Amino acid sequence: MINVLINHFEKRQQKKSDIRTAFGVFAGVIGLLSNMLLFVSKLLIGLVSGSVSIMADAMNNLSDTISSVLTLVGFHIAGKPADKEHPYGHERFEYISGMLVSLLITFVGFQFFMTSIDRIIEPQSIKVTPVILIVLLVSIFIKVWQGVFYQRVAKKIDSNTLVATAKDSFNDVYTTVAVLVSASVEGITGLKIDGYVGLLIACYIIYSGLQLIREFVNELMGIRPDQAAIDEMKGYLSSVPEIVGYHDLLIHQYGPNKTFASVHIEIDDRWNLTQAHETIDEIENKFKEQLGVDLVCHIDPVNLYDQTQQFIHQELKKIIKGINSELKGHDIRLVHHGGKPRILFDLVVPNDFKATDQELKIRIQEQVYRKIGDYTVEVTFDHNYLL
């Protein structure tokens, strides 16, 4: 049924350019309707039965209803085109709406944490009726359906916000099952554990909210891209036979589908500007077409035929690899004018490397004196690149 619904909606939206926004709004509408239905039914039953755990679960559905509204607004704003104030578009607003949803979930959790504490201090009986049982079972079914629906739409449009919403839906299934256990235990044994179950639900809601907050804070701050995406970029760059090599890859994301990157491309220094420009243009166009990434390339000419330079390149790379195989040197240049000859190069250092930059420079300088000659080493240390 879910696949039929998604496929039917997709067929109706085929002529629209921004199918992602349309799917996000569609998911928000479905969530809004289903969560509102659950909230109203559970709240009424909770008030009739006097169950704090059922009312806590109802308020959790209210937060889900509000989150569906935020999802609708979030996808609507995220789908707006770039403008003068936002030249990279509005896609990051999806992260902001997800952040607001997470804050709302956490707030509701804290509210019911305090309510559950009060109910533990002054326990009250739950009025268990067949109607309560039926509504809670229906609630579980709807939430499972909702979670699977969110998951499939999230996979289709690659949305972390909907992935989080799906997770929240399944969390609701667990909390509703806990409510059923609470009511059943009291009905069978007479033990009033409603407050304790409500407390567990509240703690779980708080934990889920804080986890979601952490995820969206990371997205807003900027996190390392997915390794599969990095490997895909590396694979393409490695397949270009005309270039000598590449390094200093930087990737910036301004939303799920707004990715910008820059990289240094090493070319034969005998190329003319036209040949270099055509090759770089082709690389940038292929990145956009095949990977959906706006790439900017910086050209690094490399001398491939001067014997002195080639000897120094090879020996320096051996020295670097001998210190640590994860160190990577590039942009190696020789400067003979202005006094003592110098070797200038950039060195990519892993984040977990133990030695300081100064200690590393001293070790390289010592080995350059022994294995290459009387050159002064000048190193630019790179700690922020992916390659």
Number of helices: 11
| Terminal-residue CA separation | 45 Å
- Main structural class: alpha/beta
| CATH C-level label of the largest domain | Mainly Alpha
CATH architecture of the largest domain: Up-down Bundle
Q: What would the CATH topology of the largest domain be?
A: Alpha-lytic protease prodomain-like
Q: Helix-strand pattern, N to C? A: HHHHHHHHEEHEHEEHE
Bin the helical content. 55-70%
Portion of residues in beta strands equals 5-15%
Q: Reading side by side through the largest sheet, how are the strands ordered?
A: 1-2-3
Largest sheet: 3 strands, mixed
CATH superfamily of the largest domain: Cation efflux protein transmembrane domain
Mean pLDDT: 81
What's the Cα radius of gyration? 29 Å
The stretches of 5 or more residues where confidence is low (pLDDT under 50) are none
Number of strands: 6
How many domains in all?
3
Anisotropy-based shape: elongated
Provide structural commentary.
- This protein is α/β, with parallel strands linked by helices and 387 residues long.
- It folds into three domains: 2-221, Up-down Bundle (Alpha-lytic protease prodomain-like), CATH 1.20.1510; 224-303, 2-Layer Sandwich (Alpha-Beta Plaits), CATH 3.30.70; 306-387, Alpha-Beta Plaits (2-Layer Sandwich), CATH 3.30.70.1350.
- It has helices spanning 2-12, 19-49, 52-78, 93-121, 130-157, 160-189, 194-221, 227-238, 273-291, 307-323, 357-371, and strands at residues 245-253, 259-268, 293-302, 328-335, 342-348, 376-382.
- The chain has a three-stranded mixed β-sheet with strand order 1-2-3, with helices on one face.
- Helix 3 runs antiparallel to helix 4 (93-121), helix 6 runs antiparallel to helix 7 (194-221) and helix 10 crosses helix 11 (357-371).
- It is elongated and about 90 Å long.
